[in-house]
Write a structure and sequence with these properties.
By secondary structure, this protein is of the alpha+beta class. It has helices spanning 6-23, 33-46, 98-112, 127-135, 149-156, and strands at residues 50-57, 60-71, 80-89, 117-119. It contains 5 helices and 4 strands, in the order ααβββαβαα. The chain has a 4-stranded mixed sheet, sandwiched between helices. α1 (6-23) packs across α2.
Length: 157
């Protein structure tokens, strides 16, 4: 990764975020989201426990991934969990194996870095992503839910 890769990463990330916002308004972006994403990528690139990869096909940006290793709760046998925080393949480059290559690269790096398991978060309404992660071996583990604070507060009064 080099600094001039930022525009390609940002463009792909915005494509991914726009898709998620269309699926569920809980993905609405904060002010200056692009700057914040750029800072996140810069931080990830500078850290030893993160891996940022950019995939290209014929010199054109095709996708990217961000992975990291974090300590698990001390109550569990697996002490280190690998996370694939972000994985995106731009619409025009899908169905060419880019996503699978990015997953293999991330998993290999996570294992070398000490991850004993690997987890991903997948937007519930993003059926394409759910199918992709199942196709590469993803299995249901946790079900993350969101509570409507307004509705809960109204009923508590």
């Amino acid at each position: 990764m080099v600094a001039n890769d930022h525009p390609a990463l940002l463009s792909m990330w915005r494509e991914l975020m726009d898709l998620h916002v269309d699926l569920d308004d809980r993905f609405a972006l904060a002010d200056r989201a692009n700057d914040r994403f750029r800072n996140y990528i810069d931080t990830a690139i500078s850290r030893d426990d993160y891996r940022v990869r950019l995939a290209e096909i014929d010199g054109l940006p095709a996708g990217f991934s961000v992975a990291c290793v974090l300590p698990n709760s001390p109550v569990y046998r697996n002490r280190w969990v690998g996370y694939i925080n972000d994985l995106c393949v731009t619409t025009t480059m899908r169905r060419r194996g880019v996503g699978r290559l990015l997953v293999r690269d991330a998993v290999a790096w996570l294992r070398r870095y000490g991850a004993e398991s690997v987890e991903v978060y997948v937007a519930h309404h993003n059926r394409g992503a759910v199918e992709f992660w199942r196709a590469v071996g993803g299995q249901p583990y946790l079900h993350r839910m969101s509570l409507d604070l307004e509705a809960l507060t109204a009923t508590d009064e």
